[in-house]
Design brief:
mainly alpha, 0% strand, elongated
Amino acid sequence: MNKEVKNVVKSLKYVLYVSLYLANFRKEFNEMKKQRRTFLVLLLLFTLFLSIPVFAEGNEKADFGWISILPPLVAIVLAFVTEQVLLSLFIGIFLGSTMLNGWNPFFWIIKIYG
């Protein structure tokens, strides 16, 4: 009987260790989720800030033809491959604004401050 009690106590210790490990893992996972959410919000703001020159008035006319399908196509393919819809959408928006700025991703600095 004494051996059985020791085995039960030993099993309960293992259950306690596993539950403590899972509780710590859950806490770390929630922190990672918060960091990821913050990263996505910052990425959204950065993408929207980069797309400001797209709406600026200008005299130049851009005709992209079939290449204009590239940003939504990239966004859709990335969404399926990475399963990160928001990140894929932001990358598609960034690609579209880069196209409209003459394939220069930082041309908005010159347009705004130049």
